[in-house]
Specification:
Strand 9 and strand 10 form a beta hairpin. The strands form two sheets. This protein has a six-stranded mixed beta sheet, sandwiched between helices. With 246 residues, the chain is of the alpha/beta class. 36% of the residues lie in helices and 26% in strands.
């Protein structure tokens, strides 16, 4: 695989939380490449390092050792200001906790990252993003007026409106009902197929993972295997083996 074909490359990534006897190694020399224009799911038992991998790969947290490169740009060499600019221009992130501003409407929350980056949304972009996640009629609602699932969909729309080259999503369908989950997964799949975006998604759901091109399995902070062209049944079987051996 050529360097130009890799959206995100992590090399010997190591991250430990705590010190001494209480230290927990979340990532243990993980080396992995996420191909450009692909949909990758990351799975593993609880505590396997999935969310830590996502946050380090997205530049939201710095590893203790190792290197992350986004389209060839080494994140470790960037100042905090330069890293913030790169994230705003090239990276999107959907958090488990939504991270919406309570005083802003859904539309204003979606616009916020663009305005922070000194950009104006394209005409109709916010409405299109809301419509894409089934919330076209909720633009003026604040987070307190939305259900948890609706708040998650606003967070997804916010990440999508800037058209990031790489979108990291931490359990993006965890708070959604089955119908909305399918719609969101279809939307993510379409972004890869139609726009060549790269999506890296942490999930615990084999059905969601089956929408990806490849599943990467983590266990105890290490790569425990991959699965190309996954089916829900194959993913579930692999997860069962990992959890039994954990």
């Amino acid at each position: 695989m050529n360097a130009d074909d890799v959206a995100v490359q992590v090399d010997a990534l190591t991250k430990t939380f705590g010190r001494g006897a209480d230290a927990v190694t979340a990532l243990d020399r993980v080396t992995l490449g996420f191909p450009a224009g692909s949909f990758i799911a990351v799975m593993g038992p609880s505590g396997s390092g999935k969310s830590t991998l996502l946050q380090c790969a997205a530049g939201l947290d710095r590893p203790d050792a190792g290197e992350v490169a986004v389209f060839g740009t080494r994140l470790g060499a960037l100042t905090e200001t330069a890293l913030t600019v790169l994230r705003r221009q090239r990276i999107g992130f959907v958090f488990q906790s939504f991270n919406l501003m309570p005083s802003l409407t859904a539309a204003q929350n979606i616009e916020l990252p663009l305005r922070l980056a000194g950009r104006r949304p394209e005409p109709g972009a916010v409405h299109s993003a809301l419509a894409a996640v089934g919330l076209a009629d909720r633009a003026r609602h604040r987070p307190s007026e939305l259900s948890g699932g609706q708040q998650q969909r606003v967070a997804i729309a916010r990440a999508l409106v800037a058209r990031p080259q790489v979108l990291f999503a931490d359990e993006p369908t965890g708070a959604l009902d089955v119908g909305t989950s399918r719609a969101v997964l279809g939307l993510l799949r379409g972004l890869v197929a139609e726009h060549g975006q790269t999506i890296v998604m942490v999930t615990h759901d084999p059905v969601a993972a089956a929408r990806a091109d490849r599943v990467v399995f983590l266990a105890d902070g290490r790569i425990a295997g991959t699965l190309d062209d996954p089916t829900a049944e194959a993913v579930a079987a692999r997860m069962t083996r990992l959890e039994v051996s954990a």
